[in-house]
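forwarding from the other thread:

> can someone predict this with flavin mononucleotide?

sure thing
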Amino acid sequence: MPGDLSTTFTGLRFHNPFLLSSAPPTESESNILRAFEVGWGGVVTKTIGLHPVVNVVGPKTKFLRADADSARLSMKKRPGAALHSSWNWELISDKTLDWWVPRLGRIKEAFPNHMLVASIMAGSGNDTELRHWQELAIACQDQKCDALELNLSCPHMDRPDMGSNVGKDKELVSIVAKVVKEVATIPVWAKLTPSTTDIVVEARGALLGGADAISSSNTFTSLPLIDQDTLEFEVHVDGLVSTGGLGGPAILPLSLAKMSQLTQAFPDKSFSGIGGISTFEHALNYFLLGCGTVQICTAAMLDHAIGPNVIRDLNQGLARFLERHADKGWKTVDDFVGLRRDRIVAQSKIRRPDEKGYRGGYDAEGYAEPASV
Ligand SMILES: Cc1cc2nc3c(=O)[nH]c(=O)nc-3n(C[C@H](O)[C@H](O)[C@H](O)COP(=O)(O)O)c2cc1C
């Protein structure tokens, strides 16, 4: 019997554990409807806010590619090059809440059993700004959205009280989660930035504030490369650039490291894994580390804007994987979530070639023994 692809995450039933993340693939009603038609288990809308948004002139996202036969990395399109990463400096949705509200309602009417997660963002500098979070949350849940994802993670906000600037402050993360939870009747996920020293600290803040799940990662702060002929950045406006976000294959191992820190620190909590996924093989890493769902952006953007082939591969990959491991009694994704969470250990716990003791470099003459290694 083929395995069951469905799963329950933060109390919500998903047809499959694969979601489009908050980004261009989910920026419009037509995209989201198409996404559900082609089989995505859920979508997280492009982030909705109340403040004015105007994007830069020219491209908001570009793709960095690597040559197979040289070390060249460039955004210039050329045959035979493989995708390295996406780079973007796109702000949140430039559509207003009023624009979104009827569309969210219509999407839920058309697909009542597909999970629609509303990504929201407001400021956090004062009580009025904090009330904006509540206004956004109430407006989306009134349209029957199934969950909220708090954008505490966009890396290119000028305002110090928005996006990853909030996500870097454990107190603010906690306050925003708490304020939203005060009015939320649906699950609240907190999407954190990877650009901090220890993501566990901010996750603890979100969970103390009452968040039901952590989503990680958003894009990594980064710059486009400089062209050696023109001496211009490969993305710029009038010669100027600001830091943007790196996504796609290059961030898969980086996001996994963040995720393993999170799932080890909070083994009983719910996690949605994001970063560099384009195949089931990639997604499997996140499941084995302890994620109940995963989200995809860059790969979907490059596949007809909403990823019909990507979701087909993910669903087929999961079905085949369950079939291959049927002898272990695995019937759903829940049967292998977290199975490799505890395989990441301190360096000193890794076996040495000749079984000589190594205690993290602490036992050399003249050095004190630590309390615990
Ligand atoms: C062009 C672009 C726009 C994005 N916009 C948002 C956004 O509005 N809100 C958000 O939470 N994340 C946003 N993201 C981040 C993605 O949702 C995702 O976290 C990131 O791209 C990593 O996933 P990937 O490696 O599959 O691309 C955006 C990413 C890209 C490339």
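The mean pLDDT is 94. thats all i got for now
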